[in-house]
Protein: 4-hydroxy-tetrahydrodipicolinate reductase
Amino acid sequence: MINVAVLGASGRMGGNVVRAVEAADDLALVAALDMGDDIAVAAHAGAQVAVDFTVPSASEANVHALIDAGIHAVVGTSGWTPDAILRVEDHLKERPELGVLIAPNFALGAVLAMRLSAAASKYFESVEIIELHHPDKVDAPSGTAAHTAAGIAAARQAAGIGQSPDATTHDPDHARGALVDGVRVHAVRLRGLVAHEEILMGNPGEQFTIRHDSFDRASFMPGVLLGIRQVGLHSGLTVGLEHFMDL
Structure:
């Protein structure tokens, strides 16, 4: 039995995590915390793993507090910067027995889409990403899209392939989207959406599209539970749920 605390328990994702943990035979919910609650509550309740689905402005501080409290962390909050990730990595050197997972996406299909797009991208001249989310999301581009772009860029660099061709010289309103690791990413915010991503790849005469759709936040729960069960077996910082999967 793994004792679990949920941070951001009253939010949309946090509420789903609470219900998923309560329904799992091998997990026990020992604390459900919200903004302003003391992380010490989770430690006093005997939490072994804490799941953070809060807000970008609070998530890093939460993770550092969890490390100080000796609690493994599974993080689904988006908006993590490279500097913030490095700070957590450095902090974990003081507690080598702990594991922290920061996952841009917990949907298993999204993880597979990211891995497949990285493998396929080196065979195509052009690659662009469209990410589509609900309008209540506070960050853009999404962590999923940024992680996808990073994987694609690394695969193409290793294969000696440059950036996608683009003759655009005049774009004052940034209609061409953001460049993330040299890959174009376009963010859509639309009422009725949950979390969706398309990776578009093109060669002369053909197009290859990989798309993943999360229609309900329940789609993230199998990945969250996988993270909870595995994070204690992986010391240090892990970025991406794919490292806990047999891919």
In short: The CA atoms of residues 46 and 62 lie 17 Å apart. The chain is about 35% helix and 25% strand. The chain has a mean pLDDT of 95.
